[in-house]
Every structure is written in structure tokens, then in C-alpha cells.
Amino acid sequence: MNINLTLIGQTITFFIFVFFCWKFVWPALIAVMQEREQKIAEGLQAAERADKDLELAQKKVGEQLTEAKKQASEIVEQANKRAIQLVDEAKDQAKVEADRIIVAAKAEIEQEANRAKEELRGKVGALAIAGAEKILGQSVDAKSHNDLVNKLAAEL
Amino acid sequence: MAGEQTSTEYIQHHLQNWTYGKLPEGYTRYDGEVLTESTWVSAHSSQEAKDMGFSAVHVDTLGWSIFLGALFIFIFSRVAKKATADTPSGLQSFVELVVSFVDNTVKDTFHYKNSMIAPMGLTIFCWVFIMNAMDLIPVDWIPHFVANVIVGDPHFYFKVVPTTDPNATLGMAVGVFLLMIFFSIKQKGAVGFIKELTFHPFSPPTKGLGVLLAPVLIAINFILETVSLIAKPISLGLRLFGNLYAGEMIFILIAIMFGAGFLLGLFAGVLQWAWAVFHILVITLQAFVFMVLTTVYMAMAHDNHDEH
Questions:
Q1: Fewer Cβ atoms within 10 Å of its own Cβ: the N or the C terminal residue of chain A?
Q2: Which residues, in sequence order, are bridge partners of residue B57?
Q3: Is B239 a catalytic residue?
Q4: Which chain B residue has the Cα nearest residue A8?
């Protein structure tokens, strides 16, 4: 329990250890700990950013999806319209064609009828004369009765 | 317990350091030998150790404290060298736990810019803790082993716990004290330091008749401040010493019982275990207190009164 040189020795030892710890131990450990702290902070930040990015991407995806749906429905609608239009056009064309055919047919029929009338008219004159000759028992002078016959024929 | 010793001898033997010192010329040693000239020898009795005076060294105290401090430095610097910022290994996370604990404690009390204080806190905490922890090794194991097996002299003095030697604790306290004065002068200048010692707590009047009182007040201030300044390292060292010395003493008293029959020996075993468990608290607390008080004293040394 005597105080002696040990005290001074202990003081010197104390300074040596403190100095060593101050210069070689402490800075390395603190640096590593701070580096890890920073790493963790960065990691957390990155995670947060990624979260935000994901949210943004999902939002974008949603928007694009609705946009695509809209476009699709528009296209379908347009196609439908076009189809109706095509059908209508076809209908119109068909009608026009049909009309044209009908008109042509009518014209032909009329022509045919006219020709038949003309033919009939000629034949009717001859028939009328033949009939009259039979009724009168003599030949009818075609010349003298020509006017009468023509009148008759014209009445037909 | 060493055979034929009485209890008193046993206790005294345990409380004596391995002292290597200079005995003066004409000194009569324990075996009647008279020294013809002053010589450096290992003390063979407490009386011899006492008579060596100041020029003696406690080899066990210094040896153990250097060994344990080196152990601390070795482990921590090894970890520091290998340390990675990635997932730390077991030992590294333990070391980091201690470092961040000390760092937070120091930051709580010390608000000035000085990169030395926190490492010093770490050194003190770990070093004192390991030195105190030697107290948990049963009191006879190492001394007996060293005395009987290595040295071959059962009378050989060998103490294991450096902090039960006031030289060790006061030595560290003196180191702290020197740093206190160094930082005080560095922060406030020599004049500021002297002012601090003489102008507080009673600031001497500068006007009127009161000026006559000024020298008296300065003298009173100087006495008060010097006493409080010197009391700091002494209380710091003696607190640690007292706690550990008392703990060691109780371990020794319990150890005496081991030689007193089977039942008492068993009882002593239980007691020793209980006291050791309790002592873990004392060990940690005293190491912590030494660190915190050192930090507080350093903060006081940095504190400049003139600024506020």
C-alpha cells in the first residue's frame, strides 16, 4: 500500500495506452461504423425511391392500359361504322343497279309491245279486208277502201 | 490458505505487492543479513517494502496492468484493422457496441471539439474494467500458482488485481490530472487558468474601499479552488481503489473460511459465488464511473467561464 515509483509507471502506461487507442484504434472503428451508418441510410433511401418508382410505374401502367382500352374500343367502333357504311353503299349500288335493270326491262317490254302492235296493225288491216270480202262476197278494191282500212287500223 | 499461516498473516500476505526496490546501506534484512551497500531487491516482508520508500516498483501491479491494457489494445486494434462496413462478425459487433456506448456517453457530457476524449474514455473503461475483472478470479489461484510452481517460494508476494493498488488508480488519476491542467491552460491560457483559480467563487471588488479586501478574497479563492482541483484526481483514484480494495478484502475473508472444515468451506463457496455476482456490478460501475468522471473533468477543463 506504499506509494512509490509504480505510480509514475502507471501514469506513463496510461498515457501510452490512451495515445495508442486515440491514434490507431478509435479512428478505424468510428470510420467503419460511420460508413455502415451511411450505407444503411443510403439503402433505406434507395428502397424508398424504388417504392416510389414502383408506384409511379404502376400508375403509368394503369394509365396506358385505360388508354389502350379506349383506343381499342374506338377502333372497334370505327370498324363497325365502316362495316355499316359498306353495307349501306352496297345496298345503294344494288338498288341503283336494280332500278337500271328494271328501266331497261320496261323499255324493252314497251319496244316489244310497240313492235307487236305494229305487226298486229298490219295484220289487222289484211284480216279486216279478208273479212269484209267474205261478208260482201266479192273482192274489195284495196285501192278504193284503202282509206277506210287505214282508219280502222289506226283505231286499233 | 498457505498451511501454517495465521489468518492475520494470510490477509497481510495477500495485501502485499511484489515490491522490487532499493534498500539503503546498512539495512538489516529479514534474515539478519546487513547490507554493505544499497541494493535493489524484492522485498521479503511488508516492513522491507515499506522501508524501500519511494524508490520501489510494484512489479505485479505494473505487469498486470500493462499486460491487461495490452490485451485490450491488441483485441481492439485487431478488430479495428479487420473491421468491415458490411455485416460485422461477432467480436466486431461486440467491440462496436462498446465503442458506440462510450461514444454516446462521452458525447452526452463533453460538448467541445477534442478527438482525444472519447478514445481516452474507451481506454479507461475497458482497461479499468479488465483490471477490475481480475478480482473475480478466486484470490488464491494465480498467487499460489506463481509462488509455488513458478517461483518455488510460498512466501512470494503476488497480487493480481492492479486496481487494488493505490499506485495504479492514483497513477491513472494523476494522468487525468495532468491532462486537466494541460487542456485548461491550452483552452484559457496560463493567465485564464490562474484567473480561474483566483477569481472564483468570490470575485474581488474593483471599486471603492472594497479593493482593500481583494487580496484576502483572492487568497481565499486560491485556497478553495486549489483544494477542489487537487481533490478531483485524489477522489477519482481513491474511489476506484477503495471499492476494489474492499471487494478484494471480502474475497480474502471468505477465502479464509475454506480452511475451516467442510461445512464452513461449502458455506464459503456459496458466499464467494454470491459476492462475485454482486461484484460484477461493482466492477462495471467503477469502470464506468472512472470514465464518466474523467470526461466530466475534461469538460470542466475546456469550459471557459469568461465566455458567459
A1: C
A2: B20
A3: yes
A4: B171
Question: Bigger pLDDT: B139 or A80?
Answer: A80
Cell of B118: 472519447
Which residue among B21, B96, B171 places its CB closest to the CB of A7?
B171
b/e per residue, A72-86, with b = 16+ CB within 10 A? eeeeeeeeeeeeeee
Tell me whether residues B62 and A33 touch, CB distance under 8 A.
Answer: no
Contact B105, B121 (CB under 8 A): yes
B36 min Cα distance to partner chain A (Å):
24
Q: What is the pLDDT of residues B167-220, one digit of tens each?
A: 999 999 999 999 999 999 999 889 888 888 888 788 877 777 778 888 888 899
Q: In what order do the strands lie in the sheet with B39-42?
A: B39-42, B19-23, B56-58
| pLDDT surpassing 60 at residue A154 | yes
Helix (H, G, I), strand (E, B), or coil: what is residue B30? coil
CA distance B287 to B290: 5
Burial grade of B124 (CB within 10 A; 0-12, 13-18, 19 or more):
buried
Asked if B113 and B161 touch (Cβ cutoff 8 Å), the reply is no
Grid cell of A122 as nine digits: 298490219
- Cell numbers of B273, please? 459465488
Inter-chain touch A11–B175, beta carbons under 8 Å: yes
A11 and B172: CB-CB below 8 Å?
Answer: yes
CA pair distance A111, A101, nearest whole angstrom: 15
Chain A contact probe: residue of B71, B172, B179, B295 with most A CBs at under 10 A: B172
B294 close contact with A: CB closer than 8 A: no
Task: Give the Cα separation of B280 and B137 in Å (integer).
Answer: 12
- Asked whether the beta carbons of residue A25 and residue B58 sit closer than 8 angstroms, the reply is no
Q: What percentage of chain B exceeds 90 in pLDDT?
A: 52
**B106 versus B259: which is more confidently predicted?**
B106
| A37 phi, psi to nearest 5 deg | -55, -45
Which residues, in sequence order, are CB contacts of B293 under 8 Å at separation 6+? B236
Phi-psi region of A137 (alpha: psi -120 to 50; beta: other; left: phi over 0): left
Q: Are B19 and B57 in contact (CB under 8 A)?
A: yes
Is residue B42 classed as helix, strand or coil in its secondary structure?
strand
CB contacts, 8 Å: A3 with chain B: 54, 166-167, 170
pLDDT at B67 over 80: yes
